[in-house]
Amino acid sequence: MGSSEGHPRCSGSAHDAWSTPERRALRELVADFTAREIVPHLDRWEDEGALPRSLHERAGALGLLELGFPAAAGGVGEHLDACLVAEQLILSGGSSGVCAGLFTHGIGVPHIATAGDPDQIARFVAPALAGRAISALGITEPEAGSDVAAISTRARREGDEYVVDGAKTFITSGTRADFVTTAVRTGGAGHRGISLLVIETDRPGVSRSRLRKMGWHCSDTAELRFDGVRVPAANLVGAEGTGFRQIMVNFAAERLSMAVQAYATAQRCVDLTIAWARSRRTFGSALAQRQVVRHQIAGMAREATVARTYVRDVLARWQAGEDVVTELAMAKNTAVAACDAVVDRAVQLHGGMGYMHGAEVERHYRDARILGIGGGATEIMDEVVAGRLGLDG
Ligand SMILES: Cc1cc2nc3c(=O)[nH]c(=O)nc-3n(C[C@H](O)[C@H](O)[C@H](O)COP(=O)(O)OP(=O)(O)OC[C@H]3O[C@@H](n4cnc5c(N)ncnc54)[C@H](O)[C@@H]3O)c2cc1C
Q: CA angle, corner 145, sides to 144 and 146, nearest 5?
């Protein structure tokens, strides 16, 4: 258990939205859940390459998966609640990799919850929020990542069905998912030809293979192939041609979640490094007594604090309905930069131990690298900002 449990710097002031009595109770629940049901097993799940389904069922039973979803789809609370859960899970010894695998429904079913019909909500959203089904989001393809409008997976209408051909790659929870909310091309070239179709993974013609990667080892990642997969037209989410817009709308929540995971990872590494620097002795005294070390840790704490403060501010403004497209991109990049700098320093200050498999900072160092690539890469976020600054001409 880290020193961040009920950490005043992470809980916020007694008056802010992150510190209401309900949210303090939620924080305690997540800290307890993480300590009992995640931390003791995390190394094994990292080695196995996936989280067990029972963890989803347990999180669902505790009501952790429904947070931030609209009430009409069986949800409760605000996106802030889902972010608070991820933040506390990391501060309590979990990881962004656990968040990716356990909360994949956060990117897999929001489109269905918002634009889906009651039948789709009953078939897909309800079991995902209960932890009984695992969902995934399939957008990225071998030839199209940042450029979502360039996807080529084709869904051809035949009567009451679509016939899907194509491939998706880097899909989180893809080896375990029961269904994948998939970006498919139902129309012509460009963003207007894209739709969202839910594809159950047990349909004939679906094949998947596991991808190995640098970090997020407990979060399985897959390449998916669709070869003449027949999917009922009833699985189309919203109208044909609205897929790109739905994807862009939901990117906002995903980017905020990743920004929260980034500053929480940074804060966790600050806490771990403080504990280490106080106990590790070199040349007769604790590392914490060396001014160069103290100042580095002070800088790490500053970066984590500034990132947290800014991300929370943008989150609050986004929830209030303000146009924060620019700030949201800036917030993700700010938090990712803070995280990258802090995890690097944390490993360095842990010395050889920081490089050892099984050291928590080593895992955060590897896990952190994806945060500036997924959910809109750093360069794409800068492009959003540049466009908003009037640089498009
Ligand atoms: C672990 C992991 C999990 C993932 N999970 C999912 C998932 O669940 N579902 C899903 O659909 N996808 C997922 N992805 C894919 C992820 O969203 C993409 O990797 C990401 O969007 C970048 O796309 P790309 O890899 O094709 O890189 P590219 O788009 O090829 O970009 C390569 C580099 O060029 C830069 N670049 C691209 N265009 C420009 C430009 N115009 N100007 C300047 N620089 C540019 C990028 O920023 C990047 O640095 C995951 C990826 C990983 C690694």
A: 115
pLDDT band for 13, please (50, 70, 90 cuts). low
Kindly give the distance from the C-alpha atom of residue 146 to the centroid of ligand 1, in angstroms, as a whole number.
5
Task: Name which residue sits closest to atom 14 of ligand 1, judged by CA.
Answer: 170
Ligand 1 atom index nearest CA of 379:
47
How many CA within 13 A on the CB side of residue 242?
A: 13
| Ramachandran area for residue 290 (φ above 0: left; ψ -120 to 50: alpha; else beta) | beta
Given ligand 1 and candidates 95, 98, 146, which is best to mutate, with the most ligand atoms within 8 Å of its CB? Answer: 146
Q: Which two tokens stand for residue 378?
A: 């750093």
Ligand 1 site-directed mutation target among 140, 147, 257, most atoms within 8 Å of CB: 140
Specify the 3-state DSSP secondary structure of 15: coil
**β-strand 179-185 against 135-138: which pairing, if any?**
parallel
Name residue 137's beta-bridge partners: 181
What backbone phi and psi angles, to 5 degrees, belong to 350?
A: -80, -5
pLDDT at 234 over 60: yes
Four-point Cα dihedral 45, 49, 51, 53, nearest 10: -120
- Rounded CA-CA distance 247/252 in Å is 9
Q: Is the pLDDT of residue 125 over 60?
A: yes
Q: Which amino acid is at 116?
A: G
At 361 the pLDDT is 98
Q: Name the DSSP class of 356.
A: S
Please name which of 331, 359, 329, 330 lies closest in space to residue 343, comparing C-alpha atoms.
359
Active site residues: 254
Q: Which tokens is 329 given?
A: 């991109």
Q: In whole numbers, what is the pLDDT of the chain averaged over residues?
A: 95
User: Quick one: pLDDT band at residue 5, thresholds 50, 70, 90?
Assistant: very low
What gap in Å lies between CA 277 and CA 289, rounded to an integer?
Answer: 8
Of 22, 26, 85, 28, the residue nearest 261 (C-alpha): 85
pTM of the model: 0.96
Report residue 326 as tokens: 């620019």
pLDDT value, residue 15:
55
